[in-house]
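Researcher: We're teaching a course module on how sequence relates to structure. For the next exercise, students receive a sequence and then see the predicted structure as tokens, so they can try to spot secondary structure elements on their own. Here is the exercise chain.
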Amino acid sequence: MKVEGYIIHLKRAKARLPQVKKLSACLPVTTHVIDAVDAQQLNAAQKRTHQKNVYRPRYPFAMRQSEVACFLSHRLVWQTLLDSDNDAALIVEDDVYIDDADFKPAYALACEYLADSYVRFPKNLNERPFKSIASIGNTRLFHPASIALGMQLQLVSREAAKQLLKVTESIDRPVDSFLQMRWLTGVSSIVISPSGVTEIDAQLGGTTIGQKKSLWEILHREIMRPIYRFKIYLLCKVHRPNAT
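Model: And here is the predicted structure for the students to work with:
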């Protein structure tokens, strides 16, 4: 299987360049740096990809321009994979630290069972296994009962990228929130643990997506977040992977 790596990096985040170089050196595949879509430079066509209330359950928060840009950055990598002759892409955000001791067996196992799937390498294991796929030592690959948030590192097959591009021509929520909805994506999302992945954005000057929120927005999120999560949980329960 032919795999290449893509590190998503915002060009103006120059303080992260040393980390990008470290990632390029430690990843087990030929790696390219992808210029992230810049929220400060979205053109009219990019802005139009964001449409409110496209899918159910309705996303209860306003999407920030930085979240739109992040989603478009991942779509850019999916398209880059399809434009290549590769079978899969190892997609990495630039605020990730990789521990080889855990990552090497995790990556090997993920490659062996990738097929047409999308493998998440979470920074923290917040997913409960629903159906085991394979294991080597203490490394486990499984279908989760529900899909957690986070886009730190993923192994995406060509077929998964093709399908994800097809269903994300319009977006109404952040990319990790959208990928929770496997009944809409049509993509088999699986999880590897331990992943060897740690997020170190705080050491690199903080996130490039977040921004200061008003008191009203904070209160609104505190009220609506658990309601939205419960709706997603119920739908994930209904649309669990085939257990046979």
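Model: If you want an answer key for the exercise: Residues 118 and 156 are 5 Å apart (CA to CA). The chain has a mean pLDDT of 92.
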